[in-house]
Predict the 3D structure of the following.
Amino acid sequence: MKTNETPLQPLKWFINFIFIIVLITIGLNIIGILFIPFFPESKILADFLLVPNFKWELPIIGLIITSILLNIGFIFSLYVFKKIISSLFKSPLFTEFQISSLKLLGQLIIILVIIKTVFIIFSNMIFGESELVGIHIFSFDSKLMAICMGLFFIYLSYVFRRAKELKEENDLTV
């Protein structure tokens, strides 16, 4: 009995698992963020969401909205990555969908890292924390590593586009 096992199968399962976990976690996080204005005296909620004391001020509301948008952006980028992996299973390589999705994923990663960095800076300014944003060069969770991954996906989309052109050219000559 032959199975459709490929080297990408464990990655596909892992991405599906992570996607479900992230949806649940970020969903609960967004619900918690939305409840902060209604329970500003809740010390447990404030500690859990790292918001020391809530007051109805424009900068704090902006941070809440930005936090929700960052979470949605992360879910969307994970969804795009999930779709790319699925398309590598189902469709032939070097499709226009794969090319545009790889480029979109790279752009999303870079934009989200920049917005998250600005978000942390403003959050620290508003709440008076002196913690630096930090670059953490020698770590896989660093901002520089994430930007490099984004640039890699953009470059990979360029490689896929070039491979598609070469494949089409080769198909015409045969």
About this structure: The chain has a mean pLDDT of 81. The helical segments are 9-35, 43-48, 58-90, 96-127, 143-173.
